Amino acid sequence: MVQQVTSGIKISVETSFEGTFYKNYKVHFAFGYKVTIENQSKDSVQLNSRYWRVLDALNNVEIIEGEGVIGKKPVLKPGESHTYNSGCLLTSPFGAMQGHYNMINFTNTNKFKVIIPTFKLSAPFAIN
Predict the structure, then answer these.
(1) For labelling alongside 128, which of 49, 104, 106, 116 has CA 20 to 30 A away?
(2) 32: closest CA among 118, 114, 117, 123?
(3) Is the pLDDT of residue 33 over 80?
């Protein structure tokens, strides 16, 4: 698990390898990840959008941007957390993801970024 705190918001990420399959005559490696967003600040905040940079071992980069997470824009009061599961496909058995959430502080209406720490994706059979 990787963790990081930015502006009082703690991000924790756990990863899992889900398997391999063929798509368009190419092998793909499926990974899952569970993200927990914990509000350790004194203010209520809302997650508005996300930005991901997905990199595989073949130097393929995919940028993913969008509103909310899994169709939600969670509001977190102090001490609350939100957990969701998602996944990605890579064309190699190794990769990494990193990014940030765009959030708003309801107390002062300031917008801010919360860093999602870089986490590695690796298929267990490919590790020495």
Answers:
(1) 116
(2) 123
(3) yes
